[in-house]
Amino acid sequence: MSERVRRGRPGHDQQSVLRVAIELFNRQGYDATSMGDLARELGLTKSAIYHHVPSKEHLLERALDEALDELTAALDAVRADASATPEQRLRSAVRSSVVVLAGHLPAVTLLLRVRGNTPAEKTALARRREIDHRLAEMVREAADAGAIRDDVDPLLTSRLLFGMVNSMTEWLRPETDVEQLADTVTTLAFDGLMRHD
């Protein structure tokens, strides 16, 4: 998808405008946030904001694409590892999703809140469903290989696994050690809480 490049005025670039927009959308809700709100937050006039971005929907689309593109790239990388077993790929997918969530927390938080009220949200939800099906396929492959239990529906298992990951948007803090968190989530998801002495 091609888009016209807008340079913006001194002091703000598209990325800084996007960061502020995501923060406002998460704080106030997308529907309740106006371009005037964004302009005020940036210290611009309402007309000046349009030198930076064409519309509020454009900002939402870019924010949702950020989260979805990162998740898709992480899954592509996992899938590309031909030497990995199905279990290793599934573990890597869970671990990578934690790292992506932590690295793009505001955008992922916004993604998890969309309900399909705008064209950008509908597109994002369709992409999320595609990711859900890819993850379910990884669960199915691991079950078929005998690496994980096969008596639970793969899509349900995938939703439960990644629901645990997604819940981090509610409590994750910037000072969290992401690598340790990713290791802990993966260990709990696959090895459980019980001690195996």
Automatic annotation (TrEMBL):
DNA-binding region (UniProt annotation): 34-53
Keywords: DNA-binding, Transcription, Transcription regulation
Alphabetized InterPro entries for the sequence: Homeodomain-like_sf (IPR009057), HTH-type_TetR-like_transc_reg (IPR050109), HTH_TetR (IPR001647), KstR2_TetR_C (IPR041490), Tet_transcr_reg_TetR-rel_C_sf (IPR036271)
Signal sequence extent: none
GO molecular function list: DNA-binding transcription factor activity; transcription cis-regulatory region binding
Domain of life: Bacteria
Pfam families linked: TetR_C_24, TetR_N
Span of domain HTH tetR-type: 11-71
The protein's name in its UniProt record: TetR/AcrR family transcriptional regulator
Protein species of origin: Nocardioides zhouii
Lineage, highest ranks first: Bacteria, Bacillati, Actinomycetota, Actinomycetes, Propionibacteriales
